[in-house]
Specification:
The complex is a heterodimer of chains A (303) and B (231).
Chain A (H helix, E strand, L loop, with lengths): L1 H17 L1 H38 L1 E6 L5 H11 L6 E7 L1 H11 L4 H10 L7 E6 L5 H9 L1 H4 L2 E4 H47 L2 H9 L4 H41 L5 H7 L1 H25 L5
Antiparallel strand pairs in A: 1-3, 1-4, 2-3
Helix pairs in contact in A: 1-10, 2-8, 2-10, 2-12, 8-12, 10-12
Chain B lengths: L1 E10 L8 E11 L4 E5 L6 H8 L7 E6 L2 E2 L5 H9 L1 E4 L11 H12 L3 H14 L15 H13 L5 E5 L7 H16 L3 E5 L3 H7 L2 E6 L2 E6 L7
Helix pairs in contact in B: 3-4, 3-5, 4-5
Classes of the chains: A alpha+beta (303), B alpha/beta (231).
Bound molecules: adenosine-5'-triphosphate and magnesium ion.
Chain lengths: 303, 231
């Protein structure tokens, strides 16, 4: 038993060394399949991040009239905290703070600062910035803000102007996941089919030898074993190659990508999730190699 | 040891619509330690007979027994066991082209689970006998036709099978090599191995003076001891 296993590995290794051209083809195709899976994994990470980002960004700003006293605003804030299920945070921004924020944000853009200078007074209104836990929670908040007693002090609620955008974003939020999953299914299927076909081709070139091996009395597992293990070799190498490629790409482009993805650091994400990613890749490539090989061999292994 | 009982084989070719009868109602028995030659013109059915015996082709009618096992009825792992007891020299060689000369011969021993030392010893011995030891590391493609044929013979004999079936084993050999190989078959037969030899080489048959079965268009027309090559 042990000696058979040793021989199966030996044959696999010989096949691996001797079929370099075909092997390269298989590895190339498998690498593409693994690349796709990895991309989808990263895409999932990015989209999760972006969705969260979007959800955090859709806050409601309640602007108060210039003349409203700070205590009144703070009492509205206290009332808002009763919606602790719906609201993540409420932040009070005074007129002075708003001005400071503006200057800080545009400190490198003199045009804005000059414009501010020309106005000659602080044009900003005091506001409350409300972050909801989920865009769908805006309804109860808006109901609260709409009550008559508050209309006298509220200048405007930017929430109402953004309602359409928020609705749209929350529907996109829900749809992105579905898209990701469908896309991964389709691309994954495509990659699997191509890999299977390539492996089938390589086994087809050995079909005479397979029948000869059977004729000298080799058991099916003794014949299958080397092909399966060879396939696993190809899978592991393609996984390593893809990861190396990603690492190099991230090392070069991560900084640029970060600004593109609103501060999402791909290299960090890749490193943090590397183990689970590796598991997915190896399981995917391994299962793909094993199943493709067994399926392709099935045709030639009829006694 | 081997028994053919009213065996017929019809090939139903998928391309041509008409079937080809390769063997018709063939019966004979081969006893252990016998040396049987099978002769017949090209297309008479010699190779078909060999293929039926090792279970490579399905029997259309009749039965073939190895010992008392019905070849057509046994399970595949039983068939594999029987195949290991038979050494076949295929007319079309059937070499493993991705393996070296050495590995072609050692494969069967590895299948049978021999130890590495035994394999090294047996392979080197048989390669010496067919004079291919210097080519051990070459691939079959790098051998001449006759060398390939000698490799097939080495592969058929290395595991000392109970039966050797040789289908035209000297077709590619010069008279000197032919003489040597036939002598080799005679020697292993004397040491107790059953030999079945299919050939259309008249000189071999007449020199052997052993049992000869003659096929003609798929029928067994003659089966005699000390037979001559008559077609
Ligand atoms: N796979 C096949 N499909 C259809 N017909 C076949 C097949 N194999 C053999 N035949 C036919 O069966 C007949 C017997 O063939 P076989 O190979 O047994 O002859 P043979 O005696 O070995 O001839 P040779 O001396 O030329 O090797 C021939 O007419 C051949 O064309
Ligand atoms: Mg023939």
């Amino acid at each position: 038993m042990f000696i058979s296993l040793k021989r199966v590995f030996k044959f696999a290794w010989q096949g691996f060394l001797r079929n370099r051209v075909l092997g390269l083809e298989v590895m190339f195709i498998m690498a593409i399949a693994v690349f796709l899976i990895t991309s989808l994994f990263l895409f999932q990470g990015i989209s999760d991040f972006l969705i969260k980002e979007v959800q955090e960004k859709v806050d409601v700003s309640v602007y108060f009239k210039e003349t409203v006293r700070e205590e009144e605003i703070l009492s509205v804030e206290r009332n808002l905290y009763k919606f602790s299920n719906e609201i993540e945070s409420v932040e009070y921004i005074s007129r002075e703070k708003a001005l400071e924020n503006f200057i800080e944000k545009h400190k490198d853009e003199p045009i804005y600062l000059e414009a501010l200078q020309e106005i000659g007074y602080n044009p900003f209104l005091p506001s409350l910035n409300i972050k909801a836990r989920d865009p769908s929670y805006y309804a109860p908040i808006s109901n609260y803000l709409n009550q008559d007693s508050l209309q006298g002090i509220i200048e405007r609620v930017s929430f109402f102007q953004n309602k359409k955008v928020i609705d749209k974003l929350s529907s996109i939020t829900a749809n992105v996941k579905t898209v990701v999953i469908s896309l991964s299914l389709i691309l994954g299927l495509l990659a699997v089919l191509i890999t299977f076909n390539t492996i089938k081709l390589t086994i087809f070139t050995s079909k005479e030898e397979i029948s000869t091996m059977q004729l000298v009395g080799a058991s099916n597992w003794f014949i299958r074993g080397p092909f399966v293990i060879q396939g696993i070799f190809y899978g592991i190498i393609s996984v390593l190659a893809v990861n190396l490629l990603f690492l190099i790409a991230f090392a070069f482009f991560s900084y640029r990508l970060e600004t593109f993805f609103l501060g999402f650091n791909l290299l960090n994400y890749f490193q943090m999730n590397f183990l689970s990613l590796l598991w997915i890749q190896i399981a995917f490539a391994g299962i793909l190699a094993i199943f493709s090989t067994l399926l392709a061999l099935h045709k030639y292994l009829k006694v | 040891m081997i028994s053919f009982q009213n065996v017929s084989k019809i090939y139903y070719s998928s391309v041509n619509s008409y079937p080809i009868t390769a063997l018709k109602d063939v019966s004979f028995i081969v006893e252990p330690k016998e040396f049987v030659s099978i002769v017949g013109r090209s297309g008479a059915g010699k190779t078909t007979l060999v293929k039926l015996l090792i279970g490579e082709e399905r029997i259309t009618e009749g039965e073939i027994f190895f010992r008392n096992k019905n070849i057509a009825r046994i399970k595949s792992n039983e068939l594999q066991k029987i195949r290991k007891k038979i050494g076949v020299v295929y007319q079309d060689y059937r070499l493993l082209f991705s393996k070296t000369v050495y590995e072609n011969v050692s494969y069967i021993l590895e299948v049978m689970g021999f130890s590495d030392q035994d394999i090294a010893r047996d392979v080197s011995r048989i390669l010496g006998i067919v004079r291919l030891r210097e080519r051990a590391k070459n691939f079959p493609e790098e051998l001449s036709g006759g060398e390939q044929q000698r490799l097939v013979i080495a592969r058929a004999l290395v595991h000392q099978p109970e039966i050797v079936i040789a289908d035209e084993p000297t077709g590619n050999l010069d008279p000197y090599n032919t003489f040597e190989i036939i002598n080799l078959f005679k020697k292993i037969n004397e040491s107790g191995t059953t030999v079945i030899l299919a050939t259309h080489d008249k000189r071999i048959i007449d020199g052997l003076a052993k049992r000869v079965i003659t096929l003609e268009a798929g029928r067994l027309i003659r089966d005699e001891q000390g037979g001559k090559f008559i077609l």
